[in-house]
Amino acid sequence: MILAVLFSNSDGNILIERFHGVPAEERLHWRSFLVKLGADNLKGAKNEELLVASHKSVSIVYTMIGDVCLYIVGKDEYDELALAEVIFAITSAVKDVCGKPPTERLFLDKYGRICLCLDEIVWKGLLENTEKDRVRSRESPFVFSLRAGGGADERSAEVDAREREAAGRKHWFCYWMLAHPCMAFCKKLRISAPPLSDEIGVVLFGTKETCNELAKELGGYKHVVVACDIKVVDEETTNALQNLPRGTSPVTDAQHPLRDPPQGTKKDQVDTIADQMKRHEIKMDCIIFRESGVRHNAVMDENDQLLYHFRERSVTKVVQVDSPTSLLGVLRTRNVLPVTVFRGDLEVWVYKKTSEEKFPTLKKYSDKAPASDKFASHEVKVDYEYKSVLEPDTVVPPDQRIKGYLYGPQVVPISSAEWEAVKFKPEKGVKLLGFTDRSSISRHYFMKDVFSFVPEPGNTKAVAAISALARAMSEMNKVAILRCVWRQGQGNVALGVLTPNISSAKNVLDSFYFNILPFAEDIREFQFRSFSSLPSSSQPTEEQQEAADNLVKMLDLAPPGREEILKPDFTPNPMLERFYRYLDLKSKQPDANVPPLDKCLKKITEPDPDVIDYQAPLIKKLGNVFELKENPKKKKARTQDRLTYTGADDQAKLLEEPSAEKVGVSEALYPPKKKAGEIGDHNPVQDFEAMLTQRSSSTWVQTAIEEMQKYITALIQDSCDRDNHQKALECLVALRKACIIEQEPNEYNGFVTKLCQKFRTAGDAKFLQLLSSKNASLISKEEAPDSDVTEEMASNCLKPEPSTQ
Amino acid sequence: MDLDPEGLFRDDSDEDDDNVQEREANKEMVVYLIDASPKMFTPATKADEKEETHFHTIVNCITHALKTQIIGRSYDEVAICFFNTKEKKNLQELAGVYVYNVTEREPLDRPDARLIKEFSCIEDSFMSNIGSRYGITSGSRENTLYNALWVAQALLRKGSVKTVSKRIVIFTNEDDPFGGLTGAVKTDMIRTTIQRARDAQDLGLSIELLPLSRPDEEFNMSLFYADLIGLEGDEIVDYLPSSGEKLEDMTNQLKKRMMKKRKVKTLAFAITNDVCIEVNTYALIRPTTPGAITWLDSISNLPLKAERSFICNDTGALLQDPQKRFQVYNDKIVKFSTRELSDVKRVSSHHLRLLGFKPLDYLKDYHNLRPSTFIYPSDEQIFGSTRVFVALHSSMRRLGRFALAFYGNPTHPQLVALIAQEEVTSAGGQIEPPGMHMIYLPYSDDVRYPEEVHLTSDDAPRATDEQIKKASNLLRRIDLKNFSVCQFSNPALQRHYGILEALALGEDEMPDVKDETLPDEEGLARPGVVKAVEEFKASVYGENYDQEEAEAAAAKAGASKKRKALTDAAAEKSAAHNWAELADTGKLKDMTVVDLKSYLSAHGLPVSGKKEALVSRILTHLGK
Prior knowledge:
The complex is a heterodimer of chains A (805) and B (624). Chain A has 805 residues and is an alpha+beta fold. In chain A, helix 6 (182-192) runs antiparallel to helix 8. Residues 131-197, 247-254, 635-676 and 801-805 of chain A have low confidence and may be disordered. Helix content of chain B is 36%, strand content 19%. In chain B, strands 6-7-14-20-17-16-13 form a seven-stranded mixed beta barrel. In chain B, strands 3-2-1-4-5 form a five-stranded mixed sheet. In chain B, strands 9-10 form a two-stranded antiparallel ribbon. In chain B, helix 2 (54-72) links the parallel strand 1 and strand 2. In chain B, helix 2 crosses helix 8. Classes of the chains: A alpha+beta (805), B alpha+beta (624).
């Protein structure tokens, strides 16, 4: 978030200010803080020299341009580097408007236009447009084109292209696939949409109906429906996507050839569209969803070729996936504007290649504000105060604090100025230490997220240089060792290995990956026993080794003739995915429980049940040849119970899964919303266990136990005869087990005691006998420490005629 | 058999916290016993008078060892003790033994800055304060070596041998301490001394000797010391060279925080539904940070305590730690309890679940996020785990596969690649331990495509074969022979330690730490290399590249030359006035704008703004 952009004159008067997400009362503080910062440091600074400061968790980059001071405050992803990017964009825009570094007067003359530009560059606290020429139009709408039915159709592509002409610069996704998973998409869209002002339109092709402007005005363009005009995502868009018409029209069936155009070849037509798209700077991302096992025929191949021709002709990216899980992965939750980490030597630009998408940091909630206050922010401010150990009442002001470092038992105070004077200050730049064999660097030494070295765009010499080096390295199986300092003033160097990335797509440049390597200090030399010196009891026998070999061979995630399964590039983060779905759900039902992982995401956290089923004998073999035993000394009291618990549960799941799997994609994306919140007559024990495993809220267990008690009571009361007794007993046994595991023995004990009394008064000893035969007596202290029933009491309680009566 | 992970392995701390304090156990206690007989003060080699004495070598070596230790293992305890001294200072009041110490420190204690500082310059005052003499002489009944061992043993009395390793290190250049004696007295003394040493060893103290050879003769172990430290046969021959290395090691050790081997976590690794084994994880590679910062009060230098308070933004009321979190979504506030959040994050019931296998080349170079974690099997809770692990390990090695697994860490559930690592050993010991490396894979959300940002619609240019050939030639020329990953120390960290040491010891000069990560300029200037680079440049950038570059630079330089000329002229002009005086008398405002600007441009300040701004800028610059 860019919290603030502020222009002031050299005397500290504010000229323009833009705050984003800063409460009004804090703004004054920021104003005075920034102006003071500038007064202290900007005097004597060079024109456009960037100065950096940080305050609490935010970073500040500020500069002087002409006579005007410019301050930008950012936090989270807007660190100094990103802010530098922002400030560059702003200063160049200001210079553009003013024609030169502005004096205060010139600046005020052009006030209106500067404000306009500023709002284009920074929109709602985010960097929007950096390129000068793009600063003119704010819109960057997306057109979502969902194809119902599947297959490629140039005609609809043309419609899209035309429509895009109308809207200006757009980003377009083209899905040739069934329309089912769209609900998942729109949730994703919703997530990425709020902070951005991206606009989205949805065009369906291959539908039964026809509904688009062109069809109305010109005729033709059949089976194309504009489901949703281009606009910022809102509830309506989501609804439109949820109620998509399914494709039935045979005209656009996946297997059908395209109709020949009136003039030229199909290829020419693609060329025309591609040129048109290029002219309007339209980028196309194409995701092909094709489940494995689809037979290819000539028509499909032709359609594919036409699509790939698009890629060659225009700015298109084509991705092919074959499972709903991958499809979810291809649609990213957040589009990140790439920011260079470094530009320089060898004319390379350095970007992040991987960077962990973190779980969002949620704000702390304060419930102090009165309910009537509609504008309450409910935010919580966290305040840190430093107090001396000796005088706990006095607060030490920040400028009186000094950092101390441990040296043996003593603490050495070092002021930041002192530190600044002597600390390690390497020169900015990338230096080559040399080349070495790829094999001399094991994969596990890679330390951090990965960088990408890309040649400077437009510099053909740099492109050639990098391409030559990358190809030579890849041919000779070599890697380069580099020492990198990304920024001037960085207190550390990054030592790492540069590996070639030879591009497979024609229109993508060759580049490098850069991985950080550890220093000598980072390696811990722990010794481990070598496997060959292990006792024979730990060495596998030949039979066992063979079983392991077979397992490795058969559980193949990259089978020939199929796309790689769970490829990192197409695998979504199940935790984030689940969180955003939950967020959406909770915004509608505030007291909703956490939904279980759906089938699609489960395939990431657990092995694919299809494969497991298929390899069942093999897996069974593995279990049989190896003997695993728990160490009896280490066994914990509750382990055994837990074991049987999950064992039963897993089996129940296993029974369900194969049948569910066959339902297919749509089923997978919309798991049946069967809530395990009730105990049905059909299979009460399983329902009960399902409820327990759900445990998404703390009260769940309690509810489950209560439900079960009610159910049992009802069973017994309903039955005059004893048909239901057997069933009730089963339930009771299940309840007993659960109560032991959940450490709620008194729940059970109280319930059974009541039950017994009831039967005793009714003189019905049969049920009690049944109970004791099934060993469903009270839970004793031995079984659950919370219980206050001794073993003796437990066994006595079920005796048909207790001594007391 | 299905083992439930939650029940078995409850030790489920959230993060791999590596910064665990070194525990009291595994600590080391050392007594350095230094021979201070006059023999130690003779020059080490005859030829050169200025040659350092053995005593100097030892002081130097121990100082270095202490400096390393205070950073690496500051919880270890140390005592320094001289023998064959004039003065005596020890609890037992034994003659010829001097336990060296500084104020505010127990004789055997953690090293501190003062100890290092004072010990490093002990030579200056040694003769006057402690003094040196031969301890074992004919005629005297004293046995200083015996006394020294006795004192050392007494010093090492604290702490149990089970948790603390205790060492006595003897530095001497006298291979025959009882050489001056004869007859029954000699045999008696040798016998009692060796008995003393044996007793100490029986108590679990190890005795090491760091012998120094005098110029004219080799140190002869077999005369006496082999018996003292209990060497037999071949060990005696090997001992001398290896002890030389030890001395070298002590002086040149890298300053590095030493970590004791400890497991990070115990995980249940579910291979199939029925087979679930137990593995331990270890952090073999983690970035080392300079260490924790303590905030101090700059006036009193006392540590500060941070207090956190939560304040409601709307009402200003003080809150207890708020339990609810919220996210604004769709202009609505959506609240979450911490329990709900942790439930959301809990996507897997198993710690580590095997999903399948892939060929090794499916693991790309960019599939990385964090340092890897090492996995080694354990039979502690589940018997038979090691066997399964070993079988799987060898299958994966042989078939060239890595395992894909899901690591259900409660805060960071992630896909991981498990790579089987074969044991690599060398003469020096194990280089790579056998086991598996767990590599954290990115999700699609974490991968970016910067190489596709600057997509061109035409085919991207590629290098020609000629250019590739030239590049290969370059690669061959600049080849790092025997490169190993951890051969460089971290210059920033070493510098940090250096500064800390200098400040703590009150040294005036900041240490000069060599930056090993800089390229070998000399090697790169070799004619063969330069030629290869030139050829490559020529083939890629064209023949005239340097010239073009130079022109571009010259154009820049031209501009800067002009600027410089202006500055010079301004400097000349501004020198005509005494600016400080003008400022003091308040006459600056009487100057012309041109004059004011001359001062500003002479000092490289901005010259824009009104006259008042110029004046105030000059005043600021003059520091008024």
